Amino acid sequence: MYVCHCGLNIAAVVDVDATTAYAGTLPGVAVARDISYTCSESGQKAIQKDIEKYNLSRVVVASCSPRMHGDMFMKTCEMGGLNPYLFEMVNIREQCSWVHTDKEEATKKAKDLVRMAVKRAALLLPLEKQKSKVHRSALVVGGGVAGIFSALYLANAGIKTYLLEKTPSIGGHMAQLDKTFPTLDCSLCILSPKMADVGRHEAIELITYADIEDISGYAGNFHIRVRKNPRYVTEDCRLCGTCSEKCPVEVDDEFNVGMKKRKAVYIPFAQAVPNYYVIDPEHCLHLIKGGCKLCEKNCPTDAIDFDQKGEVVEFDVGAVILATGFQLYDASQKKEYGYDVYPNVITNLDFERLVSADGPTHGKVVRPSDNRPPKRIGFIQCVGSRDEKEGAVYCSRVCCMATIKQATMLREKYPEAEIYVYYIDMRTPGKDFEEFYQRSRDQGIVFIRGKPGEISEDKNHDLTIISEDTDSGLLLRNRLDLVVLACGLRPPEEIDDLAKMLHVSRSPDGFIMEAHPKLRPAETAIPGVYVTGCVQFPKDIPDTVAQAGAAAAVAAELLTKDEVELEPVRAFIDEDLCIGCGLCEFLCEYGAVEVGETDEGLKAHIIEVACQGCGVCAASCPKKAITVHHFTEDQLVAQLEGALEAQEGVV
Amino acid sequence: MKDFSPKIIGFMCNWCSYAGADLAGISRIKYAPNLRIIRVLCSGRVDPSIIVTAFEKGADGVLVTGCHPGDCHYISGNYQAERKVENTRKILKKAGVDERRLGLEWISAAEGARFAEVVNEFTELITNLGPLTVDLHKIKAAKEEASDFRLRWLVGREKDMLEKGNVFGEEVTKEDFEILMDNVIETQFVRNSILTALKKEPMSAKELAKKLGVPSDVVVQNLVQLARGQMVQIIEDHPIRYEVIPW
Question: Distance between CA A286 and CA A278 in Å, rounded?
């Protein structure tokens, strides 16, 4: 029994000496020591030495949360020659010293918790970890900058990687940006070589225009089922564009966020990977009602194939990296700004397309209402971010810098224009970010601290913004030609299904929750499932690329092993008690229980690799024939008894 | 009652609420020191009979916490926990335990402040309810009840029955199910009380009726059913007494 001071983290509130002395009086306790930092190397060594010296059969450590150092102490025991499942941890920091101020009460609680753990420890059983083969391959979900870099890092390390993208081309949001902050280099110029690398990499199997139907399995052994949608254009396409010219259908172009039209047969953008055309089945006349086929008739390489069918492909991987990016906050939700109503109110992404050389205006920034160059432009920050009413308390992190970049680009194009930025706080933490911001101020861009309450429009589609300038206390009324809403980043829609399939947790903001906010930023709590990019939380391109590397590194750590160890905390069935009623089979969400005929009649049987150890079956079994290793009923009741027994001779 | 400091047991799921409790600590949010947390992997692991055992062993309150609906780490374990807690409350009520003493809350890993709030509110509630004095006979019967085959089967099948109807293909509404559940709990409670009493010593129907405070015709009806199910047998004597068939 070891009681940790954790410096003063525990010792300032809990009387460690008294708790240790008390622990020594409990039945079964051979050694009771206090250690200033049990997690330190010397602390761990002390435990290992004692295991040998006293031939300890159980180890209990009272320190921080088992979620913090539980795994580490289990390893300590294992290295000391004790089965790791004979270790028990008492949480006297997060759940005691940090949440109480009354020393007497806290010490009493610490003693109770120690007694509970000692009682439970006596009933712990040694468990053996099963081993399972690791598939040396990975699935990266999402083909934006996060997915592209994760896939490249893994593939360059010699790991077979499937990169899955739901749209016809990889590239993601970064491909839609004109320039990147703070260096103002062209976004696609730096991304498209990487996209091409993905396309021709021997170790990458690129699957675009496809959806995930199902993921099952566990670390080292995930089974993936993917539905590939038909493109109706084969790789014989030579990109001549004749099909597009002849196609009679015009629809909104997604890549240009609806600011431009495209045909029903199209290429998402010039640098798309894979680089060939695709037919949009929702708008193609032939696919909707038959006939037409103008593209097929005119294609010089016979690359149009209307007989293509969707297909389901299945494969196994050892690890999954989630890189599904973000969706932009829907600005039309914010009624007071009139997006979707006033033509001259646009979003930051609309602006990127407007300013881009291959955008709808070939890079000329003009008012959508009359194609006139704007003279007075306003940017509104925090649209759908830091806004509790809109369901997002968080800061989207990239919009301030994106606005500074866009305002700087505008200044280059229109040296005489009046440019206003309405902000709550300008946030520029990043290398060269603050310098970039200061330069933009030097260029005469006006920053007004105050969030506009409302935008109104006159008959010429000129806009009036009313806002408070909280620095001067004045109420401002500005006439503007164009307003850009700096929309925040939201978790992508499809993440709901993916998160459920993989059982990964979400943060309250809806993004994927990482395993540890500081120490495991690219892992989820599910072994073998990793996360990178904006699906974890909004971040800029350098941070995304860094996290993509981190995700690839932790995935490679798993994938370069031959075998993975499986948690032995699983349900087991007492066949003598089981009557084969099948309730467990019905309740199990993982298909981990099967009822089958045996010599003794119908009996349930646990499929160990599928069982997650939740214990729902055990708590439900009408005959109480099931229990869960490490959380058995007698272990739980022992804790109960420990908690409810009166302390003898205490405080 | 001012000096009363209740004993509260918390069963917290590893993934959401236990992590929420840790977050309260990391954020240094203070709360009442009465709670003793038992970590389980999922709130769905919390067996009704373990909850009743907690009250039997002297807990004044039991708080079960899990992930928010839809967020369960194990998909639907929290739904199962909710079904179990609701029915355990009914059983506790039969045993004379105020059902508010069994709490159920959803706390996410990100809700440290909410965790502290829930613990404080629950502690205050239990403090106001005062120390729990249990009738040992009744709580034993409740424990039997929580381990009862028929009841556990029904609780497990509830969702399925509401969605697909009963084995006869008849539609089952939530109200139908509640009525069915109440009836089963009522009958099973009488039967389990009879069994608990008979385990101590054989008794006649009249003696049982007196001891349990149940009308003697109800006792006789249930004794007949228990005899048919080979749970009790008659000792041919005068007066006729019943004893439990050991198995």
Answer: 14
B159 inside 8 A of chain A by CB:
no
pLDDT digits (tens, 9 = 90+) for A121-139: 999 999 998 888 999 999 9
State the Rg of chain B over Cα. 20
Contacts of A91 in chain B (CB under 8 A): 22, 37
Q: Do the Cβ atoms of A10 and A93 come closer than 8 Å?
A: yes
A94 secondary structure, DSSP code: I
Of B30, B37, B57, the CB nearest to A95: B37
What would the pLDDT profile of A224-249 be if each residue is shown by its tens digit? 999 999 999 999 999 999 999 999 99
Look up the ipTM and state it: 0.90
- A48-85: b (≥16 Cβ within 10 Å) or e: bebbeeeebebbbbbbbbbbbbbeebbebbbebebbbb
Measure CA A272 to chain center.
25
Residue type, B69: P
CA distance to partner chain A, nearest, from residue B71 (Å): 7
Residue-wise pLDDT tens digits, A599-645: 989 999 998 877 889 999 999 999 999 999 999 999 999 999 999 98
3-state secondary structure of A227: strand
Concatenated DSSP letters of A370-429: T-PPPSEEEEEEEESSSBGGGTB-S--SSHHHHHHHHHHHHHHH-TT-EEEEEES-----
Higher pLDDT, A162 or B245: A162
* Nearest-angstrom CA–CA distance, A88 and A120: 8
Whether the per-residue pLDDT at A650 is higher than 60: the answer is no
B132-148 pLDDT tens trace: 998 888 999 899 889 98
- The DSSP string of A448-486 is EES---EEEE-TT--EEEEEEETTTTEEEEEEESEEEEE
The residue with tokens 């959508």 is A368
- Which residues share a beta bridge with A441? none
